[in-house]
Amino acid sequence: MKLRFRYAAAALALLSAEASAQEQPLTMKCESSPLMNAFTVFSETGRMPPDLIKYLGDGPWHKIEPYKAFDNVYYVGICWVSAWLITSPNGHVLIDTLYGPYTSQMLGNIRALGFDPKDIKLVVVTHGHFDHAGGISQLRSELAPGTRFAMTEEGWREGAEESVSHPRFPWKMIEPDIVLSDGQTVTGGDVAIQAFETPGHTMGTASFAFDARDGVRTYRAFTVGGLGLNRIRGPEQVEAFIASLKRIRVLTQDGARPVELHLTTHGFSTGLTEAKELLKTRQPGDPHPLVDLPGFRKQLDELQAGAEKRLDAERHKKAN
Ligand SMILES: [Zn+2]
Predict the structure, then answer these.
(1) Considering the entire predicted model, what is its pTM?
(2) What is the pLDDT of residues 88-102, one digit of tens each?
(3) Ion ligand 1 contact residues with beta carbon within 5 A
(4) Centroid of ligand 1 to alpha carbon of 127 (angstroms)
(5) How far apart are CA 27 and CA 39, in angstroms?
(6) Mean pLDDT across the chain, nearest whole number?
(7) Which residue in 17, 77, 172, 320 is a FRET match for 217, CA 20 to 30 A apart?
């Protein structure tokens, strides 16, 4: 009896191992909508769907071809996490580091586009989660010795905390270098990048504004540092997120250089993966397919509406 039970347990374990091995990753071709749907479920329920868990594991489906998005801005990330290289003749700026084996893949992407990673003068990191900051120590050792790294004060702190506590993707953090303050402009080569403290996704999240050139036109591009509410520690964090979204919306309306487009940290969130295909067939005089200010404002509105719902839930949780 005992033996039969043990066999049954072993058979069950085998079955479930097989089931998870057979679970297909969400998409092999990097389509935006299955990824967006799965992350929305995760954001709303706090539970990760099994096919998303499988997707986030290592696999060839993460690789996408790097591409030139603007005359001076290149996509060098993987399917589900962006890394943006902003170039100048005197050196480049990199936004975010990727993680695990994908940091090396990113360096390969940079070389494939004809740039030398050793010409990166500055790496700005949106926040301390593994997918954006996990490659920071590898970059510190592989980029040129004088390369600077920048995060907000809280970003440096949360990166150090996350690096040792992440259950699935532990990584190595570096000592704080440049500490970004709100509104500060930092430079690498001839690239100027303005940092904004936009707490919410994490409390140390930074967003960045910079120029993206397209022929004779120069656009003000913006990277929102954190998009989802997947690790919320209470209503105050959601309130901060909503305030940040409102502020970013104002940046698209006011000031000497209003923001004109969003270059996202996660391509599926804006349909970037599909929009960038239009670059290949774009004719002279055609509008730039990644310049979509109404789309950016709509995204901000949708994020805010979702966050307001979540705020009710978090307040309710706290009251009970
Ligand atoms: Zn994050």
Answers:
(1) 0.91
(2) 999 999 999 999 999
(3) 129
(4) 7
(5) 13
(6) 91
(7) 77
